């Protein structure tokens, strides 16, 4: 017996709804599986044991990173890891974070060879990380060096005067909470801030001079904090050769007897999720947006080539 047209239409609508919801459920399950696989590192076709070369990508703004520290410590202690390759594309970051990374890489270099490869940029704190390696490579058009330290404090006191805003301040000492954006810094505060910058700059400069075995004339050239191209860096002995990751593996094979055919293992930690959550990671993976990218206002003493631009994030 044929169904009435209304019943047929209702059945078709129900069928379409079932198909739609089944499709949504399947997609959600696929997202969840992708996130789970990625979180466990199963999506990478890299070995987790056996002889291998570890690869650490240093990208974006460098800050202190416990996961990166732990990954480098594991590399230093794992006898199966025969070498470490740093792939650097960073304008620098905080002095503390960059210095910590330098020391962590040096700890790895105490046990096995380390090669740094500069991509588009490894300036300031990024270069600080690079010079921790036994061998430094860059492309001829890479941007590097920028050996220096900055300490920035915005000042809006003139704007406050224009709109008629005053601020009362009670201090426990003459230099407490200075510099401040709400007032012009007195000479003593300026001197104290400059003294901090100068001392950390001398530490940075000594680090580069020692690691790169620079002559006094070479050191004098980079004292002003300039950036240079990879070709100029080679002329100044700031890097060892022009080349890429393949060239780094060739050097490891020729000088350290580490075969180019040895597999690599990416030890780069995943960035933290901005708001956390399983679904956030799944969606970030599917749409191709890096999870955990956070906008930050840089403060403190920086080993940074340029200010943080919109869209930059922590890595």
CATH architecture: Alpha-Beta Complex
Q: Tell me the major beta sheet.
A: 10 strands, mixed
Helix-strand pattern: HEHEHEHEEEHHHEHEHEHE
Give me the Rg, rounded: 26 Å
- Overall pLDDT score: 82
Percent range of helical residues: 40-55%
* Name of the CATH superfamily: 2-enoyl-CoA Hydratase, Chain A, domain 1
Tertiary shape: flat
SS-based class: alpha/beta
CATH topological fold name? 2-enoyl-CoA Hydratase, Chain A, domain 1
CATH class value: Alpha Beta
Number of strands: 10
Beta-strand percentage range: 15-25%
Low-confidence sequence ranges: 39-47, 273-297, 308-315
Give a short overview.
The protein is α/β, with parallel strands linked by helices and 315 residues long. The chain has helices spanning 5-39, 66-77, 95-109, 125-130, 157-163, 187-212, 216-222, 230-235, 245-256, 278-287; strands spanning 52-62, 81-94, 114-123, 135-138, 143-145, 150-151, 227-229, 241-242, 264-266, 301-304. It is built from 10 helices and 10 strands.
